[in-house]
Amino acid sequence: MPAIIMAERRDGCGLCIDACRGNAIRIVRSKAVIEEMLCMECGACVRACQNNAVVIEW
Ligand code: SF4
Questions:
Q1: Ligand 1 atom having least distance to the Cα of 19
Q2: pLDDT at 12
Q3: Distance of CA 28 to CAs 20, 39, 40, 47, 51, Å?
Q4: CATH number at residue 45
Q5: Ligand 1, pocket-test mutation among 34, 35, 52, 58, most atoms within 8 A of CB
Q6: Is the pLDDT of residue 49 over 80?
Q7: pLDDT, tens digit (0-9, with 9 covering 90-100), for 8-48
Q8: Which residues are registered as beta bridge partners of 5?
């Protein structure tokens, strides 16, 4: 499963974007959105997020 961002926890900080080597995350209307087809399921965004807003269901 690709990474998922929980909308209610997003704050637009961009830490997940900086962490993503696959360029799978972009900002849409000030909020991070993951492009599922580009996600490599590496977990870097999960580790980078200080709000625990990103999850991957293994
Ligand atoms: S799991 Fe990895 S590839 Fe997927 S969005 Fe997060 S950082 Fe990017």
A1: 7
A2: 86
A3: 16, 17, 20, 21, 18
A4: 3.30.70.20
A5: 34
A6: yes
A7: 999 889 999 999 999 999 999 888 999 999 999 999 999 99
A8: 54
What is the number of domains present in the chain?
Answer: 1
Domain that holds residue 19: 4-55
Which pLDDT belongs to residue 31? 87
Whether residue 25 contacts residue 48, with contact meaning beta carbons closer than 8 Å, is answered with no
**Identity (one letter) of the amino acid at 21?**
R
Residue among 25, 27, 52, 56 whose CB has most ligand 1 atoms within 8 A, to mutate: 25
Running DSSP on this structure, what letter comes out for residue 51?
A: T
CA atoms of 29 and 38, how far apart (whole Å): 20
Q: With contact defined as beta carbons under 8 Å apart, do 50 and 13 qualify?
A: yes
